[in-house]
Write a structure and sequence with these properties.
Number of strands: 15
Distance between the termini: 10 Å
Largest sheet: 6 strands, antiparallel
CATH topology of the largest domain: Jelly Rolls
Helix content: 10-25%
CATH class of the largest domain: Mainly Beta
Strand order of the largest sheet: 2-5-8-15-10-13
Structural class: alpha+beta
Order of helices and strands: HEEEEEEEEEEEEEEEH
Radius of gyration: 22 Å
Length: 231
């Protein structure tokens, strides 16, 4: 029994050390992949759920701006208005968010979420911008732009300048920021009128201090070693 317990303890310690070494951190964003509410079943111009200014969804997202709406869109949806079929394919999961909503008049509509960041701490922000590009059909041609705001102030402009084809092409953007306290993170449609401006897989994670990060495996190793010797 002693050898079995020792083997199990060694396996547990190895798993903890591996997870620490690869920097497993919690995403501070709620519903960053826009899987709530569940929409569908999709199909031709159907399945999406639109939310106007002031509405909330997904447990923490708030729609900001005016003159338009945003739409949680299933990956099975497609459309055509006198042109080729356009397929709204999510980056991850079954759904994504379209910042152009049911139609796009170029309004700076968007979404925001309050996240529990701590003053003086550095965080990594990652997200994907999606769009189709059919040059012969104006509403779905060209690049897609999303403006990122922190606490109401401009932070970054993310431009997916190379979408291609009739299905959504995704491009990842990653930035670092230092919090001054709790953070309000917002994404706004920054494109001229076009048929799609996708957002998906939003992640905000704490970036550990290098010194603190290096000490965690050593502390775990010391604890595990003591436990194994006492078995």
């Amino acid at each position: 029994m002693k050898s079995i317990r020792t083997t199990q303890l060694k396996a547990t310690c190895l798993a903890l050390l591996t997870a620490t070494a690869f920097g497993a951190h919690a995403n501070l964003i709620v519903d960053g992949d826009f899987e709530q509410p569940v929409t569908g079943p999709g199909g031709f111009n159907s399945g999406y759920t639109a939310f106007g200014s002031g509405a909330t969804f997904g447990g923490a997202w708030l729609v900001i701006g005016s003159g338009n709406n945003v739409a949680v869109t299933p990956s099975s949806e497609y459309t055509s208005i006198g042109g080729p079929l356009i397929y709204f394919v999510s980056h991850g999961g079954a759904q994504s968010l379209d910042l152009t909503g049911e139609f796009d008049n170029g309004a700076a509509v968007g979404v925001q979420q309050n996240i529990p960041t701590l003053a003086g701490q550095t965080y990594s922000l990652s997200f994907w911008v999606g769009a189709v590009n059919t040059p012969d059909w104006g509403p779905y041609a060209g690049s897609a732009t999303i403006n990122v705001l922190l606490n109401g102030s401009p932070f970054q402009t993310a431009i997916n300048s190379d979408p291609s084809g009739d299905a959504t092409t995704w491009k990842q953007f990653t930035y670092l920021f230092t919090a001054t306290g709790p953070t309000t993170l917002a994404f706004q449609n920054g494109s001229p009128p076009r048929g799609e401006n996708g957002l998906d897989d939003v992640v905000v994670e704490l970036v550990p201090e290098p010194t603190a990060l290096s000490l965690i495996p050593l502390a775990l190793l010391a604890v595990c070693s003591r436990r194994i010797r006492t078995q």
